[in-house]
Automatic annotation (TrEMBL):
Coiled coil: none annotated. Gene3D superfamilies: Jelly Rolls. Residues 4-131 form the Sugar 3,4-ketoisomerase QdtA cupin domain. This is dTDP-4-dehydrorhamnose 3,5-epimerase.
Length: 135
């Protein structure tokens, strides 16, 4: 099974432009209740982000502007994809190592999270991540 799981969002629009709405309680494109939203922008050239996994947190990452390359790793396989569409999000499940690379100058990466911030949920060492999935 692929680690790359896309969530497609309904696009609305007319001659004025396009709009994507994410609403709680409607037919949900996001497969969890959203408890936290944040975005990454103005990432300096050559800087990569992420390099962690989560015990319990699930996320949907959406590149609302520009592009970046996402790498997902479950300890057995490692897959990568380019993110460049505001109409689809990448579902990142628990216990999946994530890295973000090659941010364009105009990249804005929006992240919807299933839980509030909790430092104890992070696994920041790749070797500890591998130990955790093999335990």
């Amino acid at each position: 099974m692929s680690l790359i799981k896309w969530v497609d969002f309904q696009t609305l629009g007319d001659h004025r432009g396009s709009l994507v709405a994410l609403e709680i309680g409607m037919e949900k494109a996001v497969p969890f209740d959203i408890k936290r939203v944040y975005y990454i922008y103005h990432t300096a050239e050559g800087v990569s982000r992420g390099f962690h996994a989560h015990h319990n947190l699930r996320q949907v990452a959406i590149c609302v502007a520009g592009k970046c390359r996402m790498v997902l790793d479950d300890g057995v396989k490692r897959e990568e994809t380019w993110m460049s569409s505001p109409t689809r999000g990448l579902l990142i499940e628990t216990m999946v190592w994530r890295e973000m690379h090659d941010f364009s100058d105009d990249c804005v990466l929006l992240v919807l999270a299933s839980e509030h911030y909790d430092e104890a949920d992070y696994i920041r060492s790749y070797s500890e991540f591998l130990e955790g999935i093999r335990a």
